[in-house]
């Protein structure tokens, strides 16, 4: 799909929609990483300074991280033309491994012709080189189209640069996509599948401008996050809101905060939507007192480093008295949560944002008639709580489970044992 910067380079001079047939589309503007892949004949010396990733890691990133950024680069008008074709082939200079999941799962493409990453057969790691004939540009795109279609002539070709003329000349019709500030990206509901899960530490797409700003901010961000974490760590919870404000952290607390436990009045179990690993700490700060955190799949290291008591919850326990709590967090640069990364770094990434914001909303207590004591099953109670949290946060519920999320984003079932074994 012809694609460039969102809202800046998407117009197209397309005549009437093409007749059903084969289409080959150029898509080499999806440059999300500051890394150039070159052929073995022209190695890049800087590649050897980078950690060579496992192919499995690249595959997971292509499914969990890149689709949201790619979708912002797809022009609505171009997709409508692309979608009307019977056979849809995308030709790109990007590695096939990174582009193919998005093209097939979200655009409905049939095949991707692109650059192939060289892999060490023993270690299953990318070597930093690409396979012959090299990066697929210019005449190499033309050769790839000829090999794929043979004697068949594609009906339509769409390109966005002069080097695409080589392969467009093979098509019965060819159109160039020209820059335009009035162009709009495809609505997410027009994709073949919805983008539900997303992983990664970056809030914004790392285009050149955002990447430069982020790199310039990093030294200050590192110092600032260390101060924000360790100045507040030993302080009483009732003092932290004031030091948060002094350090540029915006804390918003809404709803009625339950009173502390007293003789004859038991405490509360707060059910969170788990925005980041900071959720229980934010609850403690909002309440002005320490609370114990119970969570699934908590490592011993996380329990040891936590500033509040942390308990690993077994999967056959349930709370009797629940209060819902809907936290949200906002940051301009980094996301304070991840599936595949190390959870220990969550607060550090969150506090590296220039002006991090954490919002916590205390909701009403779980109605007695919706409790297990009233005859409801644990599944019914859980579904009700999820509905309440989803309604408050503006989320739509799906039939997907936590296990589904971790299988897609991390390639494991979300248990500590599986997560650590998968990284070995």
UniProtKB/TrEMBL annotation:
Keyword Acyltransferase (UniProt): yes
InterPro entries documented for this protein: HAD_RAM2/GPAT1-8 (IPR056462), HAD_sf (IPR023214)
BP-aspect Gene Ontology terms: cutin biosynthetic process; phospholipid biosynthetic process
Key words of the record: Acyltransferase, Lipid biosynthesis, Lipid metabolism, Membrane, Phospholipid biosynthesis, Phospholipid metabolism, Transferase, Transmembrane, Transmembrane helix
Top-level division of the source organism's lineage: Eukaryota
Molecular function terms from GO: glycerol-3-phosphate 2-O-acyltransferase activity; phosphatase activity
Subcellular location: Membrane
GO cellular component: membrane
Family: Belongs to the GPAT/DAPAT family.
Protein name, per record: Glycerol-3-phosphate acyltransferase RAM2/GPAT1-8 HAD-like domain-containing protein
UniProt lineage: Eukaryota, Viridiplantae, Streptophyta, Embryophyta, Tracheophyta
